[in-house]
Amino acid sequence: MITCEDFFVEFGDYLENQVSPEVRKELELHLSQCRACHVLYDSTCKTVKIVTESSSFELPKSVADPIIDRVMAKLRTGPG
Amino acid sequence: MSFLRAVRLDDKFGPFVEFQETLGFVPNLLRAQALLPRVIEAQTKLESAVRLREGAISRIQKERILLCVAADRQDKYCVAVDSRVLSSLGAPDRQIDDLLNTCCHASLSAPDLASLQFCLKLSRHAPSVSREDIEALRACGFEDESILEAVVVTALAVYRCTLSVGLGPEPDFGPQKIASRRVDPPREVTSHAFLPDSHDAVQRKGPYLAAPYLSPKTFAPFAIVQKSHGFIPNFFRSQTLRPDLLEAELEAVGRILVPEDVLTRTQKECILLAVSAANLNSYCVAMHCNLLRGLGMSAEEGDQIAVDHHESDLSEPDSALLDFAVKLGVRFSEFSGRDIVNLRTFGFSDEQILECEVVIALNNFANTLQMGLGIEPDFEPPFVLGQNKVHLPVAGNRPMEHGFVTASLTGVQDPDAGLVAQAQGGKLEAFEELVRRHSQLIYRALVAILGDPVEAQDAMQDTLLSAFKHIAGFQGRSKFSTWLVSIARNAAFQRLRGRREVESLDEGECEEDHNFRPRQVRAWQDNPEQCCSKSEIRQLVEKGISGLPPKYRVVVMLRDVEQLSTDEVARQLGLSVPAVKTRLLRARLMLREWLSPHFAASVRRSTP
Fold first, then answer.
1. Chain B residues inside the 8 Å CB shell of A44
2. Concatenated DSSP letters of A28-58
3. Which DSSP symbol is given to B548?
4. What are the pLDDT digits (tens) for B554-567?
């Protein structure tokens, strides 16, 4: 039977789906019995989903294009 | 008399006493390692746990495996020792002769024969072992614990044979006749094959045996591994059926790899990497590439050592050391005492040569275990080594040596290769297409480090100019996009230096990373993203990420926002995978704390 501490040690790999079937089984058993770890797991999954789908820090084309155009113009005129 | 300088150790030396008591003599293979007593201790730990005790399989079954593997490798030294030990355990001479000559017709039961055949296949040609072989053993009535033990005994046999070839110890007993038809099976090890299409199949084939969860809280050796590696590699997790064997292996590893009084840790990891690659072992290659990255070596240099160390930046002596290692580790039938004489001319001492040989033996031990147990990689391998015949172009004919790129060392064709070649030839349109393709990636890498969108836009121009200036020097050792990010990183670092913030990105792991614990324990709503508009969520996330300390910000930006794989993030930032994992978890938990007040279930109740 694993503890909350054990769960936390494996947590990063579990989120990344990188634990063996045996470890997964233990962790899932723990999740079904421990409310605090279940909340932690559920809200962290939701955090990752929100961050991943947020399209944060997107460089709008209207900003990217003039930067690239300026650089290309500089390169076309050559050094000096 | 052996290949190395002789030193005499007292017969009261602990390991010698142990062998004297259990076998009735101290094998010369151990005496030949007297220059470094700690490596004798390492081997004794292994032999004592794996060989010299009854386990899930009997001692006589274990000795049969050792003898058959030694005979198969034409190892006269080990054959003489193992025949004597087997005889002392009561095996009839006739059976020993049969094992030496026809191997698998030695009046043994069907399960014993099946087990010997499996062990021979594993020692001869480990990459060909598959789950079906394990199923066949189970069908013969072997429990997983017995199979695990048979695999570990085979690994020990390979360890001893590697050392016996490398050390040339004086025989302990008169020679036994071995059937001469036992020759090295043909092996395709001259180069490495890339199997990107079957990547998944190769990665997902194991683990073969049951491996119950073992907590670092109750199993102290795991707590030590957790502390030193930042995680517990699958290599150890796959053997949890037998904590006693694990403990012995970890003690041996500690005595062989950790001390730096003879060879450096980096030299040892390079040996392990080169021999793993020659053994076509993707798991071990990924592991040692990562460990080398943790020791400060770039990902590209690690990849280059795995593919062909002669093309790497290693010094001439270190390159000679790896030639020696690959020969003893893989082409052992060509090895002779002359190889040691040759290595001495590069300035290596006998202590260093001995340690190198023990590291090679340990590598072959690990290689046998990994392939016999089907242990899954902890990290995405930089490339998958397999058995098909798609070889790399031979040295001297490499496209990359002409400054152009056709295939990256990641094992995947770089989709940018064609445009890169044109841009290297001076075609500006090709360069423009490349930067438009990757502008988002470059920008996010810059924001990740600088934390400020406006400054990132300024730094973008510097990055593109610098990329054009240096593109001729790009040799295709990584994907082009990886290279572009490294240019962006340098541009951002240059700006940070002005702000004196570089240290905050580079600092290593600290206690705080491991001890961070979440404080918010309220449950979240079922669909939190539905409670705000998309732009509100974006602002919230951007504010949260911008507020993270830089070393966490960079990792979460590349992994979760840009959605690169963990391995790719590690490569781009020059960090080890475990370091990335630790920082990523911490970053995600900090973002969770930041978002919790907005998305907790109780919030919904208070806002009708």
1. 588-589, 592
2. HHHHHH-HHHHHHHHHHHHHHHHHHHS-TT-
3. S
4. 899 889 988 888 88
Give all strands (DSSP E) within B125-167, no chain letters: none
What average pLDDT is seen over chain A? 88
Percent above pLDDT 90 for chain B: 50
d(CA B503, CA B124): 50
Pair of tokens at residue A72: 């290309």
Judge whether B209 and B241 are in contact, CB under 8 Å.
Answer: yes
Distance CA B155, CA B362 (A): 9
| Residues within 8 A of A (CB atoms), B 199-218 only | 207, 210-213, 215-217
The CATH code that applies to domain B399-506 is 1.10.1740.10
User: Which residues does chain B have within 8 Å of residue A57's beta carbon, measured at their own beta carbons?
Assistant: 443-444, 447, 453, 542, 545, 557, 561
pLDDT in tens, A24-56: 999 999 999 888 889 999 999 999 999 999 888
Inter-chain residue contact A50 with B538, CB threshold 8 Å? no
Nearest alpha carbon to residue B319 among B295, B348, B292, B293 = B348
Unique residue bearing structure tokens 């000679």 = B320
Q: What pLDDT, on a 0 to 100 scale, did the predictor assign at position B107?
A: 76
Tell me how far apart the alpha carbons of residues B142 and B16 are, in angstroms, rounded to a whole number.
34
Which amino acid appears at position B504 of this protein? S
Residue B600 DSSP symbol:
B
Give the pLDDT confidence score for residue B104 in this predicted structure.
55
Q: Which amino acid is at A12?
A: G
* C-beta atoms of B521 and A40 within 8 A: yes
Q: Which residue has the tokens 């955090």?
A: A47
Task: Identify which of B226, B220, B317, B310 has the alpha carbon closest to the alpha carbon of residue B267.
Answer: B317
B342-357 pLDDT, tens digit per residue, is 999 999 999 999 999 9
Q: Facing residues of B600 across strands?
A: B524
Please give the CATH topology (third level) of the domain spanning B513-606.
Arc Repressor Mutant, subunit A (1.10.10)
Distance from CA of B560 to the nearest CA of A (A): 5
**Quick one: three-class SS letters along B267-326?**
HHHHHHHHHHHHCCCHHHHHHHHHHHHHCCCCHHHHHHHHHHHHHCCCCHHHHHHHHHHH
Residues 2-61 of A with CB under 8 A from B: 2-3, 5-6, 8-9, 11-13, 15-16, 18, 20, 22-23, 25-26, 36, 39-40, 42-44, 46-59
- pLDDT less than 70: residues of chain B: 102-106, 179-205, 380-413, 500-516, 520, 602-608
The C-alpha R_g of chain B, in whole angstroms, comes to 27
Residue B209 Cα, gap to closest chain A Cα (Å)? 10
Contact B360, B164 (CB under 8 A): no
The Cα of B453 is separated from the nearest Cα of chain A by a number of Å equal to 8
Q: If one looks up domain B14-191 in CATH, what number appears? A: 1.20.1290.10
Report domain extents, chain B.
14-191, 399-506, 513-606
Report the run of H or E that residue A11 belongs to, with start and end: helix A4-15
- φ, ψ of residue B78 to 5 degrees: the values are -65, -35
